[in-house]
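Tutorial sheet, problem 5. The two components below are modelled jointly, 674 residues in total.
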Amino acid sequence: MTEQHLLTGRAPAIAPADVRTVACIGAGVIGGGWAAHFLAAGYDVVAWDPAPDAERRLRDLVATAWPALEDLGLAERAAIDNLTVVATLAEAVSGADFVQESAPERLDTKVALLAEIAAAAPPGVVVASSTSGYSMTEMQTAAATPERLVVGHPFNPPYLAPLVEVVGGERTAGWATEWASAFYTEAGKTVITMDTELPGFIGNRIQEAAWREALHMVGAGEATVAQIDQAMTSGPGLRWAFFGPCLTFHLAGGEGGMAHMLDHFGPALKYPWTRLESPELTPELRDRMVEQTEEVAAGRSITRLIAQRDRRMIAVLNALAEVDRAEAAEAREQETP
Amino acid sequence: MTEQHLLTGRAPAIAPADVRTVACIGAGVIGGGWAAHFLAAGYDVVAWDPAPDAERRLRDLVATAWPALEDLGLAERAAIDNLTVVATLAEAVSGADFVQESAPERLDTKVALLAEIAAAAPPGVVVASSTSGYSMTEMQTAAATPERLVVGHPFNPPYLAPLVEVVGGERTAGWATEWASAFYTEAGKTVITMDTELPGFIGNRIQEAAWREALHMVGAGEATVAQIDQAMTSGPGLRWAFFGPCLTFHLAGGEGGMAHMLDHFGPALKYPWTRLESPELTPELRDRMVEQTEEVAAGRSITRLIAQRDRRMIAVLNALAEVDRAEAAEAREQETP
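Model answer (structure tokens):
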């Protein structure tokens, strides 16, 4: 411990399970969404945002999200009153056990703000940035204590989407990334801890590939926005709510799974089905896909996976149909007072 | 009518609403899935597949899918007994009001089979191919009556995923595409009728873009299958079950919607967030995206859309959590007999 401490900078100030107070720096759509999530998870939240009407917008956002969070289930001591909005950054972070930065997506802003937070936060307190694409290596350049700075990238809205991608920069200590991953898990998130500073992380890369293909189609007049959105929500999107692209294609291979799928449909990678150039399906990549997919399948047979897929797809379809019906009924009620 | 009839070949034999008997040619995963869907929608299904144990596998598939289809709600006269398996293609299509071809994905197979179906099906009966990527122009070359051949591309499993993409070939008559779209709608599917023979149609292009990016990441050792699948199901996939990529990004723009999103985050298109090259965000493309997204939003404010998104996301999360709990309880029951 002592040796690691000397090598990597400070150790964490507190255990992830003992965190009580979270500082949210920046309280727009993402920062406010984080505030709502941390409140629902039972933390005290201290927020700061330099925008003139930031407090009103933040409190509106949290109030609007609250019924949804109640439906999902609140933590024991969760309360909307555990939110404090303060006038300075220093005040926000001075008593925090963890800091979540969600400033506008400009590199110079992020660099300056993270340096300011690192100067004001108590020693050993981990600071995470919500950046959607900058690397921590780029952002931690001006900070006096870069070892405790990590990326903690959420998906919108942070109070509902479980995903957080955690990755450190070149000067981030291993303990800080580990601590952040453990803390987010404690706070109810689904955490992916990445070893590489991959531009856009993982979720955004997939999302961006789909988005660029959509823009290409609209630009070329091949499809409309309505057709693209409809295709997603009636097709691949329904499955991706519970099985990712790899497990989905594991099922497309029949009893042979991913191995059969790649061996049989591998040549389809050369089809002009998207503008995205296909990778070379080398034997190494083929084997890696098969092996890692089997890990995800974790012993479940294709038949079992199909049963699990169908059950979830029906649950999703029925749940969405129920919301549609409820909204239609509410609209009718409003028409006839 | 007479003139159109002369110009475009035969008129349809029957109105879409009057269809009683559907022929399924090819009864593997996709053809069998179609059979299950048509049975659940209340049709008589006559199936043919040359594989030796095709009938057993088909009846197994339908029997396995049936409880799921009951959960989703069966049509009035739906019955598993309305399935007949016959020994020849001619027998299958001779009494059909509509034919769905789901043969293996090989062009020569499709060309030959569609010619055979076109020769044997009653005049004016529309024939649809489940092809996941060939164009009807390529496939209809050997058919004597090409005007009634269309693509009707489903998503897997066809008995649960609502999407069907309909598009004709160069020699397909307008009435045939119209008829097929009307019939699929009648049969409970969500139909996208395309004007262009776009390779991969729409759903597969989006899916393929995500898939290729996933393969690239695994190939480069940047992410694992487990991380990619987890990122999808905890992040973008959850939203795509009900809001497509365009409406999702309409919300990312705050009150300014798609217009603000493109004007503000447009430069992000140049970021190396995926291997997919970005389209040029010309003023024309920008305006087209904004205009078409407003059409999809159909007058709903951003606030209203956010409320609708949150409600659906919670419904999906709760529905999936309930399935997880039910499966865990079942597993426990099986352990302690």
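Marking note: Chain A touches chain B through 115 residues (CB under 8 Å). Full credit if you identified this.
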